Amino acid sequence: MKRVAILISGGGSNMIALAESMVGDHPARPVLVVSNEPTAAGLSRAARMGIPAAAVDHRPFGKDRAAFEQELLKPLLAAEPDIVCLAGFMRVLTPAFVSRFEGRMLNIHPSLLPKYTGLHTHARAIAAGDAEAGCTVHEVTAALDEGPILGQARLPILPGDTAETLAARVLPLEHRLYPAVLRRVASGDRGRLDL
Ligand code: GAR
């Protein structure tokens, strides 16, 4: 059974979709949820699901990412994860941290990568006049949002869409895509999935 740790910063709806999928004959189980935001709603939601949950506030470390990551590593390494899923985790990780989990750290990003790395993805897709938007699950590498793509799900951008209406339609797609990709990765399948 593969052990999965999930890093969050906010509501944790992707974390919940992942955790709820890891039941029955699924080859993985959630072993830890960590948030850099101590008040993240996802922490209490994880605890209610019986998943060990921890907070490591980034603020006391200021701009010292390495010091924050040393603290983040403590609960993470103690949980001995085989796979680490970033699920709305909004801190940029240093190459040194990423290299510890090379090939076994996944992220979900709300755009059709390689388009729109970083923030405000839906607003940028609309402003560019794109016909489609969506989400991507990829391996995390040192380059932000640029690791190998494991899966994508897409939908049309509708006339009158705003960043908010688009985000509200893409989020349920994320909840389908991420568990589907995690299941494949946990089974040893790195083939690309398109929904
Ligand atoms: C999701 O839309 C996820 O794709 C995005 O944050 C949201 C988290 O929602 N992630 C990023 O923008 C990463 N750069 P959730 O906390 O409800 O899962």
Automatic annotation (TrEMBL):
Instruction: Quote the record's binding site residues for N(1)-(5-phospho-beta-D-ribosyl)glycinamide.
Output: 12-14
Q: Name one Pfam family in it.
A: Formyl_trans_N
The reply on keyword Transferase is yes
Q: Does the keyword Transferase apply?
A: yes
EC number annotated for this UniProt entry:
2.1.2.2
Record site feature (Raises pKa of active site His), residues: 145
The record places the active site at 109
Name the record gives this protein = Phosphoribosylglycinamide formyltransferase
> What organism does the UniProt record list as the source?
Plastorhodobacter daqingensis
